[in-house]
């Protein structure tokens, strides 16, 4: 199939824009690979320290002939998605021995749950936990003991952080190993309904907790299509999983066999093999474009408007929101998963999931089929569904038709003609608008502004009835340099209530929403942020704001000279507590939202 001309043009533009930085990155990968297996250069004391606790694997590691896998794990048993990882390392060591290899836990990385921290002061650590994870990954891999890397991570900032860290060790083959979603619980739309009833005072806290507990009820990833499950989709689109590993349930024989296959495969693609596939070569410009296309085709998380540019930069690739916006215009929305629809990721998977999605996108020429993946010859090998034949893992071709066209459709009959993540720009800056979750009748909102400086103020005004009108809610000083760019997901229920009452409502903020960004129109990630005099710092109550996803515009409707002559509002006093003061250096060094909002990439000049 001929490549779609927009996909081809955007890819060519990214390649040209990245020529210098990508060239320098590939030179780094080549230099590191040419050093060979670094542990052979370690002194005896270094090596003795490294295998002192290796128990049964000590002779093999000492001899230096076995492929040694470094496991970087984000395990903790508070985060439901990562609880299954507790037993993975011991299983993976057994799987490695089956093919004459060894494995060691190279290090652990933090893994916070945005579901726990939503609306709390600790949410101000969330985005920068990604950069902390990247640094922790680099520390883990710095011991020069490993021929390949197995990464155990799923959730919001964790996969991007693992990738950023691993890409700076781009000479090592790397496989990401998921653990799978929890079984379906209370339908997501019902959970949303109960939340709105709670903010209206129509149900109590006990009923709300019952609903939340029925939604998030067991080990595994949350079942809505937020950032965690968007991560898993992207790993398939980039060829960093074994095929279709994303959504098999934890604790099943199939899940165990997928993990086993990943360990075995990793040993086949190392330095010195006939099939060397280092992550620095797997993640190229085409793979990044595939990730964007997958995000758009499935209605994935807005958080990846930040994470994908950051991941790309770690590999010397320069991706911006113009690229994503142009791709959105060419890529149809073929999945209808909550928050865009009623279904959860289990139902998406049952309808054909990633195998059908990849087959459709390849058939329409919307993705690069010729990327280098960790498994198979082309991305076409990922258009297959895993299953068991006895104990043996087998893949069968993706279904030619969706098993449920209310959830997953062919490219020829999409839910919407575009990918549903638009760039909006104007005299208030540049931001992201996720149209795929918003009814088209609400893509254009014009109303007076009401300005706030945190989400608690918004909720207080809502409870006081001050927002019962057409309103554009502006929440500023929420950018990466102001307070770490927390998610403002707690605003979704009250704004949804206002919208359901018939008011024209929109949110404009330099902060983030959630991977579950919902039905209320929102311009998020506004850049430049208010801190430092960005346009949002000049907005006042009553200013008329027009937000239009159709035309891709966002403007305050007043004389520009008069607007710019205003004195910018002063930011709130920087808060401490909950460890926020420890991240002051990250806030000071953070880049713009469009460049990924990463302090470590900015400081490194990447």
UniProtKB/TrEMBL annotation:
<dbReference type="Pfam" id="PF24877">
    <property type="entry name" value="ILV_EDD_C"/>
</dbReference>
<dbReference type="InterPro" id="IPR037237">
    <property type="entry name" value="IlvD/EDD_N"/>
</dbReference>
<keyword id="KW-0479">Metal-binding</keyword>
<keyword id="KW-0004">4Fe-4S</keyword>
<dbReference type="GO" id="GO:0019521">
    <property type="term" value="P:D-gluconate metabolic process"/>
</dbReference>
<keyword id="KW-0411">Iron-sulfur</keyword>
<dbReference type="Pfam" id="PF00920">
    <property type="entry name" value="ILVD_EDD_N"/>
</dbReference>
<dbReference type="GO" id="GO:0051539">
    <property type="term" value="F:4 iron, 4 sulfur cluster binding"/>
</dbReference>
<dbReference type="InterPro" id="IPR000581">
    <property type="entry name" value="ILV_EDD_N"/>
</dbReference>
<feature type="binding site">
    <location>
        <position position="155"/>
    </location>
    <ligand>
        <name>[4Fe-4S] cluster</name>
    </ligand>
</feature>
<protein>
    <recommendedName>
        <fullName>Phosphogluconate dehydratase</fullName>
        <ecNumber>4.2.1.12</ecNumber>
    </recommendedName>
</protein>
<keyword id="KW-0311">Gluconate utilization</keyword>
<dbReference type="InterPro" id="IPR004786">
    <property type="entry name" value="6-phosphgluc_deHydtase"/>
</dbReference>
<feature type="domain" description="Dihydroxy-acid/6-phosphogluconate dehydratase C-terminal">
    <location>
        <begin position="407"/>
        <end position="597"/>
    </location>
</feature>
<comment type="similarity">
    <text>Belongs to the IlvD/Edd family.</text>
</comment>
<feature type="domain" description="Dihydroxy-acid/6-phosphogluconate dehydratase N-terminal">
    <location>
        <begin position="68"/>
        <end position="381"/>
    </location>
</feature>
<dbReference type="GO" id="GO:0046872">
    <property type="term" value="F:metal ion binding"/>
</dbReference>
<dbReference type="InterPro" id="IPR020558">
    <property type="entry name" value="DiOHA_6PGluconate_deHydtase_CS"/>
</dbReference>
<keyword id="KW-0456">Lyase</keyword>
<dbReference type="GO" id="GO:0009255">
    <property type="term" value="P:Entner-Doudoroff pathway through 6-phosphogluconate"/>
</dbReference>
<keyword id="KW-0119">Carbohydrate metabolism</keyword>
<comment type="function">
    <text>Catalyzes the dehydration of 6-phospho-D-gluconate to 2-dehydro-3-deoxy-6-phospho-D-gluconate.</text>
</comment>
<comment type="pathway">
    <text>Carbohydrate metabolism; Entner-Doudoroff pathway.</text>
</comment>
<keyword id="KW-0408">Iron</keyword>
<dbReference type="InterPro" id="IPR042096">
    <property type="entry name" value="Dihydro-acid_dehy_C"/>
</dbReference>
<dbReference type="GO" id="GO:0004456">
    <property type="term" value="F:phosphogluconate dehydratase activity"/>
</dbReference>
<dbReference type="InterPro" id="IPR056740">
    <property type="entry name" value="ILV_EDD_C"/>
</dbReference>
<feature type="binding site">
    <location>
        <position position="222"/>
    </location>
    <ligand>
        <name>[4Fe-4S] cluster</name>
    </ligand>
</feature>
<dbReference type="GO" id="GO:0005829">
    <property type="term" value="C:cytosol"/>
</dbReference>
